[in-house]
Amino acid sequence: MKIYLATGNKGKVEELIPLVKKYIPLVSEVVAQAPKDADEVEETFLGNARIKSYALLKEILDSNPVFPFYVLSDDSGLEVETLEKKPGVHSARYAGDHVSAEAHIEKLLTEMQGKTDRSCRYVCALNLLRVYSRIDVKEFSSEGYCEGEILLEAKGSGGFGYDPIFWVPSLQKRMSEATLAEKNSLSHRQRAFENFSFEF
Ligand code: IMP
To answer: Ligand 1 mean position to 69 CA, how many Å?
Structure first.
């Protein structure tokens, strides 16, 4: 069965593909397709994940698809305790739209200056649509978390987004220094898949 991933984020796609294959064994083909018309206006991760999956579903249905198929969206971000859970749902545009991950990190490190509580967590909301026909669409949702600490400076080239400043206590390394397999063994994304209960 074909699954459409509602994202254009290469880092997410790289992590999602092995997780999809592991947790949704019926999947035989993965297509990453960012929805064109999906304004993430909700204040919850799940709310924004649903916006993305339904926007992509509409595009797919407009293109006369082969049934059945799945649509999966991931809305995720970083919550920093001492910043009242910022950047949260705004993680991808914290320092502005269309700026680099380094710019978001720099803004966060500036806001964290002098803060002693460095605790944070990654959050991932998944929204899966199982589409058997135009009128048979079933929805499943899940959330997962990964606890960590914000470091004082960025380092490492693995992962994406805030990984260069995200310390993972159980690995004793930064997320940007973890292998894909290590990250996928404990990430917020992996935990959201683990918490999923859906019918094929
Ligand atoms: P979304 O595409 O609207 O869900 O935004 C997700 C944003 O949250 C990304 O652009 C990153 O800034 C951040 N983020 C989510 N997951 C991760 C992760 O696994 N590592 C680092 N940053 C992440």
So the answer is: 25
Show the domains of the chain with their CATH numbers: 2-194 (3.90.950.10)
| pLDDT per position as a tens digit, 31-41 | 999 999 899 99
Angle at CA of residue 36, ends 32 and 42, nearest 5°: 100
Residue type, 172: Q
- How crowded is residue 111: how many other Cβ atoms within 10 Å of its Cβ? 16
Q: Which of 39, 91, 98 to mutate to test the pocket of ligand 1 (most atoms within 8 A of CB)?
A: 91
Alpha helices in 63-169 (DSSP H): 101-111
75 is catalytic: yes
CA distance 160 to 175: 9
As a residue count, the chain comes to 200
